[in-house]
Write a structure and sequence with these properties.
This protein is an alpha/beta fold. Helix content is 30%, strand content 29%. It has helices at residues 4-23, 26-48, 208-214, 244-263, 283-292, 301-311, 326-335, 355-360, 374-385, and strands at 53-59, 63-65, 69-78, 84-93, 97-106, 111-119, 124-128, 132-136, 143-145, 152-157, 190-196, 218-223, 229-234, 267-271, 278-279, 316-321, 341-347, 364-368. Strands 15-14-13-16-17-18 form a 6-stranded mixed beta sheet, sandwiched between helices. A 4-stranded antiparallel beta sheet has the order 5-4-8-9, with helices on one face.
Length: 392
């Protein structure tokens, strides 16, 4: 309850009393008693003005992109009838900074608000609060804290650049259907084939005419059009990145592609170091994963590709990496029969020799310097080798 200033004053008072006892000078005793009594009076003052506050917080946005600025507004209401004086409010955004406000007087049942701005950098998930309010005596010798305010959550997504266009890889026209069934895990609009009913299937997909003929429940197996599906695979191995900036550039590239595909109506998935790909149509979950992703040197990316191949899929494969290596080339080869069009995005200031292998396989490539921009490189590649099409 005593502040640092109060502890110093009390210590000085006790020291003077001890000196009086040693030297017998009454002035030392009077001064020491005065200091101790002043501190006790300050404590009595703050106890009499015990802060009883309702505290709330409003975020301008709970989700922002790297480098954006958002506002935080604190709202306080004095629940007491008597005024509160010398209020100090501290509110911290984890790792991004702290705001401090001083309120000289808050009348009984009065509401006050304070707003501050936060520049959100770098990407990540941050705790906002709890807000802490304290009241003190006029000399700030003692203080008393109100119960902590609420805690909120601020998610800073990676930087997203606006992309346009989709690839038409050599001999791989997205308008052409896949050569084998590629069933949608989330459903689609096109009827493809029938299969026997399994427990847990949606009863609305039962094909009743065929069921009546065979006397067995049959389910309509739906497929999503080939050109409307995609997998974005972010390479999280630190060995392929020249620097931390290169990794951040790759994360930004993955976020930009995910945003572009989702806006364009793609049935897209994202893999960013998790056991399984994430449904990118759950946009906030996918972007939060990218907000938290970090390099992981324990990832066996070829084993990951094997698991993805076993699960099945189809459409376009977008590989986002730093300096493409032979392991990533193996990933493309493992998935080429499932994902018939591949795009390689590399955040690197050098040219990898492995790119020759990707080019031989008909893989389109977009390479940017870690200090560059994806949008301009993407547009340049689109103009030179791609045709802009829309997802159907």
């Amino acid at each position: 309850m005593p502040t640092l200033r109060g502890w110093v004053l009390s210590g000085a008072g006790l020291a003077l009393i001890i000196l009086w006892w040693v030297f017998g000078d009454p002035e030392l005793l009077l001064t020491g008693i005065f200091f101790v009594v002043a501190e006790l009076a300050a404590i009595g003052y703050v106890l009499r003005h015990d802060p009883q506050l309702d505290m709330g917080r409003r975020l301008g946005s709970t989700t922002v992109h790297n480098g954006d600025t958002t506002t935080v507004t604190l709202v306080l209401r004095n629940r007491r009838r008597r005024p509160l004086r010398h209020l100090s409010i501290h509110d911290e955004v984890e790792s991004l900074g702290m705001a401090v406000f001083e309120i000289a007087k808050l009348m009984g049942d009065e509401t006050a608000s304070a707003t501050y701005r936060v520049t959100c950098r770098p990407r990540g998930v941050y705790r906002v609060g709890p807000a802490r309010a304290t009241t003190s005596d006029p000399l700030r010798l003692a203080e008393l804290s109100a119960p902590d305010g609420p805690i909120d959550r601020l998610v800073v997504y990676p930087t997203v650049e606006e992309l346009t266009g989709f690839p038409v890889i050599r001999g791989r026209d997205p308008a052409i259907s896949a050569s084998r069934p590629e069933h949608s895990q989330r459903g689609g609009e096109d009827f493809y084939t029938l299969r026997e009913y399994q427990r847990g299937d949606d009863m609305r997909r039962i094909h009743w005419p065929y069921t009546a003929k065979t006397d067995e429940l049959m389910i309509r197996q739906l497929e999503t059009p080939w050109q409307s599906r995609a997998l974005v695979l972010l390479d999280v191995r630190p060995s392929v990145y020249e620097s931390a900036d290169a990794f951040e550039m790759a994360v930004s590239g993955a976020a930009s592609v995910v945003t572009h595909l989702v806006k364009s109506g793609f049935d897209a998935d994202l893999w960013a170091g998790d056991p399984e790909p994430i449904d990118a149509s759950r946009y906030s979950a996918a972007m939060e994963r990218l907000a938290l992703v970090e390099p992981n040197d324990e990832i066996d990316i070829e084993a990951v590709a094997g698991r993805i191949r076993q699960k099945g899929g189809g459409g376009a494969l977008v590989l986002v990496t730093g300096v493409a290596d032979r392991s990533l080339l193996t990933v493309q080869q493992l998935l080429s029969n499932h994902y018939r069009a591949t795009l390689l995005m590399g955040a690197s200031s050098t040219t990898s020799q492995t790119l020759v292998g990707f080019h031989r396989l008909g893989v389109a490539t977009v390479t940017v310097d870690p200090t560059g921009e994806w949008a301009s490189a993407w547009l340049s590649a689109t103009r030179s080798s791609w045709t802009a099409v829309s997802a159907s």
